[in-house]
Amino acid sequence: MADTRPRLLHLDSSAGPAAESLTRRLTTLFADIWCDRHGTDGYRHRDLATDPVAPLGPAYVALGRRLERRGAVPPEQVGALTATPDERREWALTLPLISELRAADTVLLGVPMYNFSVPAALKAWIDRVTFPGAFLDPGTGGSALSDTRVVVVMARGGAYGPGTPRAAFDFQRPYLRAWFTDHGVAEDNLHFVQAEMALASLVSHLARFRDQADASLAAARKELAELATRPPLITKVRA
């Protein structure tokens, strides 16, 4: 029987504990509202910091290059084409992550800004799921992510929005926008929600920005609550 339950894939990448991590608190707000609306059966949470994705090994690269030479191969057929125990191990680490991403109607990411970009824990996940043919839809020839909604929750210690002095230092939003849109997520389905000036309550020389930080956090919470109640673009049919 086909499974048509809405599915949410929730990824946290902050190295901080839940009580201290702004992105974790904000993604939890979204997930709680979503689960209250849709139930928990379709909810999947991965903590990329406490259960990190293994970095890529040489066998991953060898397998990927060999398959690229063959042309696009659907993920479910890759296992039969592995040639060594190391390749089979790499694929066993990779396929569950790709399957989760393909199956999700909504993907929720908690992404603190680390050194102007994304945490290494998230980058390791991105590297592993970016396998040749991973998101090919064999039925349409397009992307399996074309109807996926992505909500990226960002926390930044300072202000990096357009017009701010440090706007050019933001390698977080442009990188994630490039990766998701390049893999088939429509621009209109990609939502960035940021809480800025997060260090204003911790660092004395930024204390004058506390009102700005509070307003940014309130706006982020409001936007996430609204996004969490939106119905899926479509409900993907799964066997």
In short:
By secondary structure, this protein is of the alpha/beta class. It has helices at 22-38, 58-70, 75-78, 85-103, 120-129, 173-182, 210-228, and strands spanning 8-12, 43-47, 106-112, 149-155, 190-195. It has seven helices and five strands.
SSE order and pairing:
Layout lengths: L7 E5 L9 H17 L4 E5 L10 H13 L4 H4 L6 H19 L2 E7 L7 H10 L19 E7 L17 H10 L7 E6 L14 H19 L11
Parallel strand pairs: 1-2, 1-3, 3-4, 4-5
Structure commentary:
With 239 residues, the chain is α/β, with parallel strands linked by helices. The chain has one domain (8-228): 3-Layer(aba) Sandwich (Rossmann fold). Helices cover 38% and strands 13% of the residues. It is built from seven helices and five strands. It has a five-stranded parallel sheet, with helices on both faces. Helix 1 links the parallel strand 1 (8-12) and strand 2 (43-47). Helix 1 packs parallel to helix 7 and helix 2 (58-70) packs across helix 4. It is globular. The mean pLDDT is 91.
How many structural domains does the protein architecture include? 1
State the CATH architecture: 3-Layer(aba) Sandwich
Mean pLDDT: 91
Quickly name the level 1 CATH class.
Answer: Alpha Beta
The CA-CA distance between the termini, in Å, is: 7 Å
| Helix percent band | 25-40%
The CATH superfamily is identified as: Flavodoxin domain
H and E string: EHEHHHEHEHEH
**Order of neighbouring strands in the sheet with most strands:** 2-1-3-4-5
Could you give a short account of the major beta sheet?
5 strands, parallel
Number of distinct helices: 7
In the predicted model, the low-confidence regions spanning at least 5 consecutive residues are: none
Class by alpha and beta content = alpha/beta
Query: How many β-strands, per DSSP?
Result: 5
Overall radius of gyration: 19 Å
General form: globular
The third-level CATH topology is: Rossmann fold
Percent strand equals 5-15%
